[in-house]
Amino acid sequence: MYLRTFIGIALPVVTRQTVRSAQQAMQASTPEWRDEKWVAEENLHITVKFLGQVPEGLMTQVDETLITAASTMRSFQVRIGDISAVPRPRSATMLWTGIEEGSAATIELANTVDAALVEMGFPAETRSFKPHITLVRSRNPQRVPFEMLDVGQHVFFAAEDRLKRMSVRGVTLYTSTLTPQGPVYEERLFAPLAD
């Protein structure tokens, strides 16, 4: 049996709620984007590494490798930043919010995890890592009105700083089950950072 697996940074409830408020404002402002694949509030996270289909018999080794890799990093602060249309506003397939503070530490964490899993035989990441929280995926590339980005960004500007800031104290190993209603994530393991 294989498990669809990825490693991510879980978001606190208040941060997820802030991001969800931005999603709702954007959906309300732009009807043509309403029916795209908006990430459910409970699924919002920062992806560190996607592993894909992993044999169930290998999962204990993945657990141990992740715990060891995480223990070499210190905890750090992250603050969510600007909303971007990816790859460009004229023809976007995704909207995400970047990381305004703590980006370098998040990249270091992702590189540390990647290197540890490459030693296990997982393929190395070939693209440079850009920490972000995915808000929505489009079925086809389409234009993103600047007003839509502005509406979402206004939610972040108006929110108190504590609702946009979080402490990263570990990484989570998730399994993902695809359903007609969207993916369902389950937390398999939390690997704490050094402090």
Describe the structure.
With 195 residues, the chain is of the alpha+beta class. It has one domain (2-192): Cyclic phosphodiesterase (Cyclic Phosphodiesterase, Chain: A, Alpha-Beta Complex). Helix content is 31%, strand content 38%. The chain has four helices and nine strands. Strand 8 (170-177) and strand 9 (184-192) form a beta hairpin. Helix 1 (13-29) runs antiparallel to helix 4 (146-158). The radius of gyration is 17 Å and the shape is globular.
Q: Can you tell me the residue ranges where pLDDT is under 50 for at least 5 consecutive residues?
A: none
Give the strand order of the largest sheet, numbering strands 1, 2, ... along the chain.
2-6-5-4-7
Instruction: Report the biggest beta sheet as strand number plus sense, adding barrel if it closes.
Output: 5 strands, antiparallel
The CATH class assignment is Alpha Beta
